[in-house]
């Protein structure tokens, strides 16, 4: 893979050593630059688990992806930078201990100079930092262990703890996630089939598009606004009006009148809300 190109894509530099702090900087840069999104599923474009395709999509075309793509390419980057990385199969875990399907989510265990960490850039932009692979509370993430079973809980804005993904430390290969990836793409019961979404972390919250609703979470403040199909296809919450490819290359129809900054202006007009500058969320054009 072209590590330098991906580092440039996320606005990060090569770390001197594979430390926990370096990993935190890389994960933070990734989730604020590369959206978690599933628009290829709704466009009928097959999801590839080939790393060269991930590089082309995320770096070459400025797109995002979901967990198999984002964490798959991030794992390759970390290995290039000297980190040890183990891919693990994550699954849901019921209150009664019942396990959901294997390979439902791809999560990374990363060996750093400071110990083993849990990294995840494909979790809907919820994790801005990695978490130590150690039982206990680590900020808004709690890590639990019962024998070979690990799982996390995440603290929601209302203070309650919600159970997250579970896994064992058995090493996996990316190709092992293929069958479950096909389910996520095509099965009517898959929430990726029933929802089209794009999510990007910001310094103080998240920006998201979910089934045509644009949401900004800024600290404790949440603002929602429906967008029309044209805005959803081509807009960015920063108001740049740009998409994954430059205008003039057949990606999006030309704007009607001078709509280059229409999203930002209408957002401010309707809501008076600050839009995070320089953040590009959607990358959904064909």
- Order of strands across the biggest sheet? 5-4-3-2-9-8-7-6
CATH class of the largest domain: Alpha Beta
Beta strand %: 15-25%
Q: What class, by secondary structure content? A: alpha+beta
The CATH topology annotation of the largest domain reads as Arylamine N-acetyltransferase fold
CATH architecture of the largest domain: 2-Layer Sandwich
Separation of the first and last Cα atoms? 24 Å
The share of residues in helices is 25-40%
Q: How many H/I helical runs?
A: 9
* Mean of all residue-level pLDDT scores: 83
Number of strands: 13
Write a structural description.
The strands form 2 sheets. The protein has an 8-stranded antiparallel β-sheet with strand order 5-4-3-2-9-8-7-6, with helices on one face. Helix content is about 25%, strand content about 25%. It has 9 helices and 13 strands. The protein has helices at about 5-10, 20-30, 40-45, 50-60, 65-80, 180-185, 190-195, 230-235, 260-270; strands spanning about 35, 85-90, 105-110, 115-120, 130, 135-140, 140-145, 150-155, 160-165, 195-200, 205-210, 215-220, 220-225. A hairpin with a 3-residue loop joins strand 10 and strand 11. It is an alpha+beta fold and about 290 residues long. Mean pLDDT is about 85; it is low at about 235-280 and about 280-285. It has 2 domains: about 5-185, Arylamine N-acetyltransferase fold (2-Layer Sandwich); about 200-270, no CATH class. Helix 4 crosses helix 5 (about 65-80).
């Amino acid at each position: 893979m072209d590590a330098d190109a991906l580092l440039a894509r996320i606005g990060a530099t090569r770390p001197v050593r594979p430390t926990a702090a370096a990993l935190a900087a890389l994960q933070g840069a990734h989730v604020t630059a590369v959206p978690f999104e599933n628009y290829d599923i709704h466009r009928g474009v097959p999801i590839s688990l080939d790393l060269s395709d991930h590089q082309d999509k995320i770096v070459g075309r400025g797109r995002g992806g979901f967990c198999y793509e984002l964490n798959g390419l991030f794992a390759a980057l970390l290995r290039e930078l000297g980190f040890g990385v183990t891919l693990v199969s994550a699954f849901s875990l019921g209150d009664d201990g019942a396990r959901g399907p294997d390979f439902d989510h791809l999560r990374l265990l990363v060996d750093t100079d400071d110990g083993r960490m849990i990294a995840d850039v494909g979790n809907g932009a919820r994790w801005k930092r990695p978490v130590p692979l150690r039982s206990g509370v680590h900020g808004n993430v709690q890590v639990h262990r019962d024998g070979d079973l690990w799982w996390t809980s995440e603290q929601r804005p209302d203070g309650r703890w919600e159970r997250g993904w579970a896994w064992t430390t058995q090493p996996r290969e990316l190709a092992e996630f293929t069958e479950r990836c096909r389910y996520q793409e095509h099965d009517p019961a898959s929430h990726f089939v029933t929802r089209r979404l794009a999510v990007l972390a910001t310094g103080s919250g998240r920006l998201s598009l979910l089934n045509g609703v644009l949401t900004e979470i800024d600290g404790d403040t949440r603002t929602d606004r429906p967008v029309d199909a044209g805005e959803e296809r081509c807009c960015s919450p920063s108001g740049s009006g740009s998409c994954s490819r430059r205008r003039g290359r057949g990606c999006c129809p030309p704007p009607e009148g001078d709509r280059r900054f229409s999203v930002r202006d209408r957002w401010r007009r309707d809501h008076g809300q600050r839009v995070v500058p320089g953040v590009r969320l959607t990358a959904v054009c064909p």
